[in-house]
Fold these 3 entries.
Entry 1:
Amino acid sequence: MEQNILMEIYQPAEDSLMFAEFLNQYLKSNKIDSYLDIGTGSGILAKTASKIISPKKITASDINPEAIINLKQQPFKTIKSNLFKQISNSFDLITFNAPYLPLNPEEPKDSQVATTGGKRGDEISIKFLKQAKSHLNKNGKIFLLISSLTPQNKIKKLWPYTIVVKKKAFMEELLILEFQQNTNNP
Ligand SMILES: C[S@@+](CC[C@H](N)C(=O)[O-])C[C@H]1O[C@@H](n2cnc3c(N)ncnc32)[C@H](O)[C@@H]1O
């Protein structure tokens, strides 16, 4: 359900910087013709990509209309969308630094949109992966960032993955999971 409250734009944090560094290396050594960043927030990942590949190949989307307004001067395409609702294309690469934490009812609603993956923490990631399957080109890849606080059993059952980055943060470990269209998508 989309929310009518004014949502904060997620400011780049340790997870964003870790993902940007990984993406930078990945794009330097892999040929990508189309890239979608879901939940782009400040646009850190799309901006990182646009220094390496043509902005014409990049689409950045977010459920938060403020995030999309904030990116309107950027050279890449932006779309306000709840996951893939407004997205019809397929891509070689899809990234999502997901809201991955289990619900903390004490957290204000306006920041929960960026941080909270649902009651357990894995709900948005699962929805994302189910929808992403039909938006990934042959040999395409998805990189999804979650945390050690996110339950992984349902995600793994849905679509086995490889952990490509693991980093200790304050209260958790941050993980980037790689999903491939051709090899491990059942
Ligand atoms: C952890 S923040 C990451 C922001 C940015 N990509 C970064 O790395 O700093 C998660 C982002 O996902 C967005 N988001 C949450 N639910 C979404 C949904 N259902 N569809 C699209 N974006 C969503 C939030 O608005 C937020 O910008």
Entry 2:
Amino acid sequence: MSEHYFSARPEAASAPRTVRLTLPDLDLELATDTGVFSAGHIDPGTRILLANAPEPSVRGDILDLGCGYGPIALTLAHRRKRARVWAVDVNERALELTRRNAEAAGRGNVRTATPDEIPDDVRFAALYSNPPIKVGKAALHAMLLRWLPRLLPGGAAYLVVQKHLGSDSLARWLTEQGFPTTRLTSERGYRVLAVHSRPDPGDDPCTNSAAPS
Ligand SMILES: C[S@@+](CC[C@H](N)C(=O)[O-])C[C@H]1O[C@@H](n2cnc3c(N)ncnc32)[C@H](O)[C@@H]1O
């Protein structure tokens, strides 16, 4: 049986190579390897996310959820040089590649970590992800419900998901969970979703307004 890209310790023999990430604002050669997602080329969904997702609208840490070899984390770290960018994955080979890619690019603001290594008090101004749809709906939902509540007020998550892999039903489900979700763009069968942090009840103008004098 072929190995999943989300194995914690891929067993496939290492076969290092590089791919080129070329965007209007950066050009990077990234190390990749067997056993990680899209090892032979930058995934088209990742490219569409990076071309369309806005930069964070509030200040704070940034999360690349499911970083693979790091194209999203490194791009955000380049665009937001003063922000700390957490590159998180369950695949140790992917984390090591991201660490090396960040070092080679001189991006000291990237921190690689497994999900359990992120301190509980860290909150995120923005989350970017090409999420691991292949883990199955229950695991995907659990992963999103673990991290979305950690968005700062005014923060947002940007997810790229293929239409035929359920982007529209995921958007509806996220909205039902209390994370208002809109479609930012639709391109070549991929949707980029913008998921907003849960509105803070304290911000409700009906409950928060000063008593009339
Ligand atoms: C579709 S790949 C995207 C990789 C990379 N961001 C890219 O754009 O090339 C999704 C990644 O999520 C990781 N992943 C799977 N389950 C995860 C979890 N529970 N927490 C964090 N990352 C996870 C996988 O190992 C994989 O590297």
Entry 3:
Amino acid sequence: MAELDGATLIARSLKQQGVEHMFGIVGFPVVPVAFAAQREGINYVGFRNEQSASYAAGAVGYLTGRPAACLCVSGPGMIHGIAGAANAWSNAWPMLLLGGANDSFQNGQGAFQEAPQVEAARPFVKYAARPDRIERLPFYVEQAVRTSIYGRPGASYLDLPNDLIVGKAEEGSVAWRDRCPDAPRTQADPAAVERALEVLRGAERPLVIVGKGAAYARAEHEVRDFIEKTRLPFLPSPMGKGVVPDDHRLSVASARSDALKNADAVLLLGARLNWILHFGLPPRFRDDVKIVQVDVCAEEIGTNVPTEVALVGDAKAIVGQLNAALDEEPWSYPAETAWRKELAEAGAANRAAVEAMESDRSVPMGYYRVLAEIRDQAPRDAMLVCEGSNTMDISRSVLPNHDARERLDAGTFGTMGVGLGFAIAAAAVHPHRKVVCVEGDSAFGFSGMEVETACRYGMNITFVIVNNNGIGGGLADYDRSNVPPMVYTPQARYEKMIEGFGGKGYFATTPDELSSALKEALARTVPTIVNVAIDPRAQRKPQKFEWLTR
Ligand SMILES: Cc1ncc(C[n+]2csc(CCOP(=O)(O)OP(=O)(O)O)c2C)c(N)n1
Ligand SMILES: [Mg+2]
């Protein structure tokens, strides 16, 4: 009977479990795993740093609902990969971290790159294991995949000693596992569904908040239907954007602060009351706000604010239940109310302030002109990746999303350095679409070398660097003997680096240069960088709660 090696068993099991992408860096002892993955038909993308590879794996999990694998060498490689596991943990995205490890018979001997890897992964993963026998590798791979996608999604870790990777097993002795089905779409208690609608019907100032949990659950059809049926005002979380298109007439995103502060009932659809939503607490929310909470994770119910009605389960299934109840007993929030008027006025005032900045053509440019140009030129179905501080915050309001899962950003963990990995993940999942990756200059620097990865695979990515010479802003010039902590090289020519790898770079300092550079860059299908020098003192629109935003 034929023998199979551990590497082949790992790769075949991954493919069997619906893992289509593997990102990583090879070295001891995982080289055979990467080759086996390619043989088994998994798309292997070799990165330049495991951090980016691990971020990319999480993004694929979010975009597709099936985890991607991040393959790391033992010791330092695996330690780098924890960055992505932690990012996936914070965002509740599925991914697999695969760490090569020293031969198990050398444990404790000071083996090459020996490290307590299972222990190191543990706090950030839902599942961490070191398979015990080659024959049982499919068992462990199935458990890792299933755990990552069932319940609240997250990362799983498998520790893969060299002897397991190169060892062999008789084909007949292998305990193969069938593909685990997608997570069951659990419904909420029907009584809670009735009660949720009662709370919304009784509210004077209702608000729906759509989070990335709804996007992950692929609930866009149901959520749009629900918004149309109820005519409730809604706003999205940063990555909940697009579940309902941003240009929908019932969006009150441009009146976000006012909507949060004055709502008397909030329906949370896969959004958590964490720092992004100011914990649901005063002064950003009313202290008597009633929270109706849809979440896949029962433990999330009641975090920071006691929940009025808990709907625990899958967002797509539960919003479907709400819609079915509304079909039985139709209701919609009245067309003319003081609340609608208030929100419309606040939204109009905010939009007017922003529009003035967007059309300001002075040099040096500010953020709004740059982002408005990207908005006007990017294809409608572009995948958007946005990262930075001001760059990302402002992009949220200026760059619209038309569909679900089309925006990736620093997310719940606020991680700088995710952008390039995310862009590569988006290109891997959607090879026929343009990826527009908008990066602050600091954000770009964390993983800038991954432009080589994008060039090597000929990915259709346009990187736009919004360059203000530093972290939240730098200086036009500086004294080398006293460099302030937030300052980077003024007008650094980041676009030149991509040319070394066969991509095309552009540098723009004026609105006209930006406009033509972007036009050319977006028309190309090879990777491009448009490096845009903006005013190092440019800031975002003054915020009502500036002191609380970080
Ligand atoms: C991994 C990590 N390191 C450091 C930070 C702190 N931090 C927050 S935003 C930011 C960079 C902001 O600068 P930039 O990307 O240039 O955007 P800008 O605000 O200048 O437009 C940094 C370093 C972080 N969030 N994550
Ligand atoms: Mg900057």
